[in-house]
Structure formats: structure tokens, C-alpha cells
């Protein structure tokens, strides 16, 4: 199968806030550095779907909003990953789906393997892109959603 693991990524510093997230919980964003985080409604986030050729493009995963503008050619309307733009597309990323109906935050019914796929996408976006804020009812600028990745799981 096609592997996404071989890409070279730039590393940003804004990951720190998430890397200390406690399992199953939320955390204080005071550890976050860089630009202040904004809390978006789903409707506000839609403004960043790439329709505006000069505007920023954002993609959210698990309630965390990433700025993908640098790679906007992949996310603009009509492009391969346009369904993710301006949305929390967690479900689609977990399912490896490019169907518009899957570009939603709801993870109901996903298998453990699919959650692992999603968490790998989280790692990918964390390494490559800046975090701009949060979206959805379970997050606010002061309460980054827990993003469980291999690095953030407690050592057992
Ligand atoms: C045969 C199928 C596929 C091929 C050949 C393919 C190819 C690629 C390539 C070449 C990139 C790197 C783009 C770049 O360098 O900017 C990429 C990134 C990506 N792919 Fe795929 N892909 C495939 C299927 C999928 C599917 C089914 C999904 C659904 C989740 C997906 C989601 C993504 C995402 C989210 C990125 C990251 C884009 C970014 O860097 O911001 N891909 N893919």
C-alpha cells in the first residue's frame, strides 16, 4: 500500500502543547508557545476551505486546527484533498477515505486500527504544520483536546 511515512517534514515548535497532554484528559494551553490559539466554530473553520485563493487554508484533526496554507495546492477546491479543507476531517483520515461525507469529527464505530491510522495522521500534521487553534464543542483555547499519539502515551 502507498506509504505516507517517507515524506520529509519541517518540525515546528507548537507541538509542545500537545506532547504533554495527559491521557484521556485536557490540559492548560499555557505551555503552548507561538501565536495565541483561537477557538473556531465549525462554521468559522469553513472560511478556511481554500475557496479564497488568497486566504489561509486550515485542516482540523481531533479538534486541533492546523494551517496547511503552505501546501494549499493539495487542498484547494477540485484538488485531491479538498474535502479535508476547512473541516475537522478526523473520520475521513482514520478511514483513509476521500469521501466528503466522511470529512467529519465523529469517530463512532471506528476500529482500533483506524484510530491508529488517525493518530499517525495527527503526528504527521503536528510535525509539518503550525497549530492555529481548536474547533468543536470539546475544545477551547484553554483546553486543547487530548491527542493520543505514540509519543504522548504514558510509558507503561
Ligand atoms: C493511491 C492512493 C494515494 C496516493 C498515490 C497518494 C499520494 C499522496 C502524495 C504524493 C502525498 C504528498 C503530497 C505532497 O507532497 O504535498 C500525499 C499526502 C497526503 N495524502 Fe495521499 N495518496 C493516496 C491516498 C490517500 C487517501 C485515500 C487519503 C485519505 C485519508 C490520503 C490522504 C493524504 C493526506 C491527508 C496527505 C497529506 C497532505 C499534506 O501534506 O498536507 N491519501 N498523498
UniProtKB/TrEMBL annotation:
Gene3D superfamilies: Cytochrome b5-like heme/steroid binding domain. Signal peptide: none annotated. It holds the Pfam family Cyt-b5. Residues 40-136 form the Cytochrome b5 heme-binding domain. One of its GO terms (cellular component) is endomembrane system. Belongs to the cytochrome b5 family. MAPR subfamily. This is Cytochrome b5 heme-binding domain-containing protein. It comes from Sphaeroforma arctica JP610.
Amino acid at each position: 500500500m502507498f506509504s505516507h511515512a517517507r515524506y520529509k517534514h519541517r518540525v515546528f515548535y507548537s507541538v509542545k502543547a500537545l506532547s504533554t497532554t495527559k491521557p484521556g484528559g485536557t490540559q492548560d494551553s499555557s505551555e503552548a508557545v507561538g501565536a495565541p490559539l483561537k477557538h473556531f466554530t465549525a462554521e468559522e473553520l469553513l472560511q478556511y476551505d481554500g475557496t479564497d485563493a488568497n486566504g489561509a487554508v486550515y485542516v482540523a484533526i481531533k479538534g486541533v486546527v492546523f494551517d496547511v496554507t503552505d501546501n494549499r495546492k493539495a487542498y484547494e477546491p477540485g484538488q485531491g484533498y479538498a474535502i479535508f479543507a476547512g473541516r475537522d476531517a478526523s473520520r475521513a483520515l482514520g478511514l483513509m477515505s476521500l469521501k466528503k461525507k466522511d470529512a467529519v469529527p465523529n469517530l463512532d464505530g471506528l476500529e482500533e486500527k483506524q484510530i491508529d491510522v488517525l493518530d499517525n495522521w495527527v503526528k504527521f500534521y503536528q510535525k509539518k504544520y503550525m497549530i492555529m487553534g481548536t474547533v468543536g464543542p470539546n475544545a477551547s483555547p484553554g483546553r486543547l483536546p487530548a491527542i493520543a499519539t505514540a509519543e504522548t502515551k504514558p510509558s507503561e
